[in-house]
Amino acid sequence: MIYLDHAATTPVHPRVAEAMHPYLTNVYGNPSSLHGFGREARMGLERARDRIAHILGAEPQTIVFTSGGTEADNMAIIGGAMAQQDRGRHVITSSVEHHAVLHACAHLEQLGFEVTYLPVDETGMVSLEELKQAVRPDTVLVSIMYGNNEVGTIQPIEEIGRFLRERNIVFHTDAVQAFGVMPLNVSELPVDMLSVSAHKINGPKGVGALYLGRKVPIQPHLHGGKQERNRRGGTENLAGIVGFAEAAEIAAREMEERVAKYRQMREAMLAVWREAGIAYHVNGHPERHLPHILNVSFPGVHTETMLMNLDLAGIAAASGSACTSGSLELSHVLQAMCLDDTVMRSAVRFSFGITNTVEEVEQAAQTTADIVKRVAR
Ligand SMILES: *Cc1c(COP(=O)(O)O)cnc(C)c1O
Which terminus of the chain has a lower count of CB atoms within 10 Å, N or C? Predict the structure, then answer.
C-alpha cells in the first residue's frame, strides 16, 4: 500500500505518540485546577503553547488552541467579523479557500454580512490588484489562504498583508497546508490571525491553533469557562496539544530535508510520466507551489476511474474535492481556475509525507502511467 494523500491527513509520528502517552495516562489533572494534579497539567499545556509560539515567532499568549484547522478558521472569520460589525459588514476572501473558510463566510452572509470572493488566475493565484479594488470603507476582514490544499498554489500573503496593514484591515490566513513545509514567522509576516492544524503535520487529529494577534478584536464562539484567556471555553485537549507541539517541533527541525525530499518525489513522478509518453497536465502554479502537493490531470481518464484503479493497486490518492454519494463533484478550486472541462474532470492530487520513499512514489507514478495507457480514451 502506498499512501499519497498527506494533504488529507498524515500518520502520527511515533515520537508524537510517545510524547502524548503520559497525558493519556498519568497526567490527568485539569489544567484549570489549582491543586498539584492541575498544576502539572497546566505546565504541560503552557510548555506546549511556548513551543508552538516559538516556532511561529509569536508571543505565547497569542496562541489559542482549538479543535483543529476548521475551528481556527471559523473563530478567525466569524469571531473576527462579528467583533467588528459596528465598523462595517464587508469581508473579502478568495474563491479557492478550504470549505472551513468558504462555509464560515457563507454563514456570515446569512448573518447579514457581504462577502467578496476574489477570482484566481489559471494557476490558482489571487491578484493583489483585484484585492485592492475589492476593498471598501466597510471592509473589516480579509481571509486568504497561505497555500492551497488542492493544487498547492502559494498566495502573495506578504504583499496582501502589507497593503491591509496600511488600511488597518484585519487579515487572516489559513496556513494549515503551509505549516511544516514553509517557514512561518508572524513577527515578520503582516498577518493578524493564522490557522494551523496538527493532523496535517503528523500530529493527532482534533487539535489545532489560531495565532491571534494581541490587539485583534475577536468574539468568542465557544462560551464556557475562562480557558484560553477567555477566548475559547472548554477543558483543553491536553494530550492532543502536547502531541501537536511535538509534531510541530519535529517538522520545524526536519523541514529542509522534508522539502528537498518532496521536491525530488515530485520530479520523479513527472519524469516517469514524461518517459512513459502519456498526456498529462500539471495544475497549479509552476513555481509558487507547496512542495508536497502535486495536482495533475490525465486527459481521457476520469478522476473517479483513476482513483478507483489506483486504489485497486493499493495506491491512495485523492481528487481534492468532496465526494458526495459516490458521484464526484467538480472541484471549486479547479473551476475557479477556469480549466478546460477535460482537465478538470481528470484531475488527481498526489500529496507526499514523511513516510514516503522516492522508490514507492516512482512505483505509483508507473502504475498511474499504466492505468492511463490502459483506459484513456
Ligand atoms: C485540512 C485543512 C483544514 C481543516 O483542518 P482540520 O484540522 O481538518 O479541521 C483547513 N484548511 C486547509 C487548507 C486544510 O488543508
Answer: C
324 pLDDT tier (thresholds 50, 70, 90): very low
Q: Is the pTM of this model over 0.85?
A: yes
208 CB near ligand 1 (under 6 Å): yes
> What separation in Å is there between the alpha carbon of 145 and the centre of ligand 1?
11
Q: Is 323 assigned a catalytic role?
A: yes
- Least confident span in 121-135, 139-153, 260-274, 309-323: 309-323
Q: Cα 315 vs. chain centroid, distance in angstroms?
A: 23
3-state secondary structure of 98: coil
Task: Determine the atom of ligand 1 nearest the C-alpha atom of 9.
Answer: 1
For residues 65 and 56, give the distance between their C-alpha atoms in angstroms, rounded to a whole number: 14
Is the distance from CB of 301 to CB of 273 less than 8 angstroms? Answer: no
Cell of 42: 497546566
The domains found in the chain, sorted by start residue, are 2-8+254-375 (3.90.1150.10), 14-250 (3.40.640.10)
Residue 26 identity (one-letter amino acid): N
* DSSP label at residue 63: E
Is residue 320 in contact with ligand 1, taking CB distance under 6 Å? Answer: no
